[in-house]
Amino acid sequence: MKRIQKSIIKKDLSKKMVFIVGPRQVGKTWLANEIAKDFSNPLYLNYDHLEDRKIIHNENWLPTVDLLILDEIHKMKKWKNFLKGVYDTKSENFQILVTGSARMDIHRQSGDSLAGRYFLHHLLPFSYKESSKSKNFTLDHLIERGGFPEPLLAETSDDANRWRIQYTESLIRYDILDFERIQDMRAIQLLFEMLRSRVGSPISYRSLSEDIGVSPNSVKKYIRILEALYIVFRITPFARNIARSLQKEPKLYFFDTGLVRGDEGVKFENFMAVSLLKHWSYRQNTKGLLTRLHYLRTKEGREIDFCLIENEEAKLIVETKLSASNVSRHLHYFNEHFKIPGVQVVRYLRKEKMSGEIPIRKAENFLLELTI
Predict the structure, then answer these.
(1) Starting at the edge strand that comes first in sequence, how are the strands of the sheet with 42-46 ordered?
(2) Domain carrying residue 63
(3) Where are the alpha helices (DSSP H) in the chain?
């Protein structure tokens, strides 16, 4: 299947280095190799391979190489200084594409010596727009399987489930331990399982800590690790004062919708969260806009599923429903009182229509109009 980001990444490579970051097994290496097909002499080097590692350390690739792909380079000591040196001394026709896990994204943020030398692209699971164009998958299929390539393309649901078990075990047993030393692996595994059943609900760190038997600070730490590894992502209530927003109870969603435990409505909400995050991240990566995904909640209990923020301004509020012909009263409230454009996205809807200033859209049509 084709990735919409391919053309913009190739264009960015002619200007700077490009970093592709995202969840493990989401297709970063595959996309890099697809981009490599458009070059005369590309070279792929994986730091996990001993022979490749020697070539990287010695910088003894052939002078005819026009695209250097470096995978898992974040595992190299002082990798940022290494990349800075290679980039600053490269020839005009030599381009550099770096792929890796979310860990690379985290280390990139701390003491960034590469400032001004790269463009960043987040590669997230396949969207409905991408998959429907390539394989004509239904939305039901995508929600059931999730947007990761292997389960999405698997011949049977059994094969997809077998992949997910191995994927989950790998994340818990290896990736988390590789990322940070954890004293109580039982606790973080229990937290992971509990979060699968609490998608879309405000998360209480204290409540979770009591259920698991660890401190609230440990719960926060474990969730930050799950976020850093692109297993879950957190959205907070939007407030003009960002610090106030971060202090309030967040909601968590999984990058892999197939991991979600819950009814059809919960899984649909999770899929919409991933789709909106992908759409908004793409705008930030390609337009240079400061984008964030939040939700809205008042002291009186009025709540909207998603609020899309661009350059500190609320651009769109989105309410998701499995089936509803009338607009949520909370959506009407925020639209009328705060003049924020809104839309209600419905999974099962016979006819689209307007309700005052708010459109009620079929999920498929709304998703096809996103940028990615």
Answers:
(1) 42-46, 67-71, 95-100, 17-21, 118-122
(2) 6-122
(3) 6-13, 28-36, 50-58, 79-88, 102-109, 128-134, 139-145, 149-153, 157-170, 176-179, 185-195, 205-212, 216-228, 242-247, 264-287, 329-338, 363-368
At 174 the pLDDT is 77
Cβ atoms of 75 and 47 closer than 8 Å: yes
Report which secondary-structure segment, H or E, holds 296.
strand 291-297
Instruction: Give a yes or no: residue 151 inside a domain.
Output: yes
Q: Which pLDDT value is given to residue 150?
A: 97
Q: What is the mean pLDDT of the chain?
A: 92
CB 91 within 8 A of CB 12: no
177, amino acid identity:
L
The reply to whether 160 and 184 lie within a common domain is: yes
pLDDT tens-place string over residues 111-133: 568 989 999 999 999 999 999 87
Domain boundary among 122, 142, 163: 122
Which of 287, 292, 329 shows the shortest CA–CA distance to 314?
292
Entry pTM? 0.93
In terms of domains, do 32 and 166 share one? Answer: no
CA distance 321 to 331: 12
Q: How many domains does the chain have?
A: 2
- Work out the end-to-end distance of the chain between its first and last CA atoms, rounded to an integer number of angstroms: 14
- Per the structure block, which two tokens stand in for 57? 């350390």
Interval 153-176: pLDDT, tens:
999 999 999 999 999 988 887 777
Residue 18 three-state SS? strand
- Report if residue 202 sits inside a domain: yes
